[in-house]
Write the structure tokens for this entry.
Amino acid sequence: MKQRRVIISCAVTGAVHTPSMTPHLPITPQQIADDAVAAADAGAAIIHLHARDPVTGRPDQTPEAFGKFLPQIKERCDAVINITTGGAPGMQVTERIQPVIRFRPELASLNMGSMNFGMYHMLDRFKEFKFDWEASFLEGTRDLVFKNTFRDIEQILQLGKESGTRFEFECYDSAHLYNLRHFVDRGLLEGPLFIQSVLGILGGAGTHPEDVVHMKRTADRLFGDRYHWSVIGAGSAQLRVAALAATMGGNVRVGLEDSIWLGPDRLAESNAQQVRAVRAIIEGLGLEIASADEARDRLQLKGAAAAAF
Ligand code: KMH
Ligand code: ZN
């Protein structure tokens, strides 16, 4: 694959990690906005966003919560804004899609299959919590299915068609690539696919190089040159997996949503620090990073002005 410039995405807060795990997780609207802009300034072309309660840090999927930072981020940087439809584990799909309905972003995530989504094992490492929701939230994932049925996916694809929103297809295993191919075969998808291989989530594929290669080879077989490949390595594997993906012609996603680490037992101090670290790897390979407008062009996005915020 002809190596183009590498699109860096940054997922600044997410719903996987809880506030007591790191002091660097942005929680308030101002912290989320500041981290997003700093990540963009550091080289992230796409910013993936969740929202949280500003006091307790609990994931908040209400449009009101997103409305507190979206306009400011758009005002302060030109990054592509990518809003989650995944929300937090346990949320209903109807709740999860409300921010995309309200704000009609250029890009949104779309999770390509139901799965176990375990975070309870983090309780083995994190014992003290500031807020009473954190431990039960993590423990609750022991008996949780992250629901993304074929009907859920159809509903979100239809929403995208209506709002001009294109998708970052989150594929946690090769089965999810076949699900995506099913929707392509049914003619429900147009234009280039932005496939995000999400590796290292308990319930999905692992982060071994063979897992990374398997996801790439399966996507190549199913989608040929119809897709742009990106990779998330969750947890401490983040930079190792990003480096491998970049050498394979892929794009990368980093951010405190999926890893609070910069290296073994070393907390990342900010999202921007992770962006700078992956940018150094990319440029060290003799590659260049892509701008936000180049990402828009490659992913055929509608432009920031067409969003409803
Ligand atoms: N947190 C990642 C494992 C979404 O927001 O829709 C995947 C993700 C899902 O970002
Ligand atoms: Zn997310």
Q: What stands out?
A: The chain is about 40% helix and 15% strand.
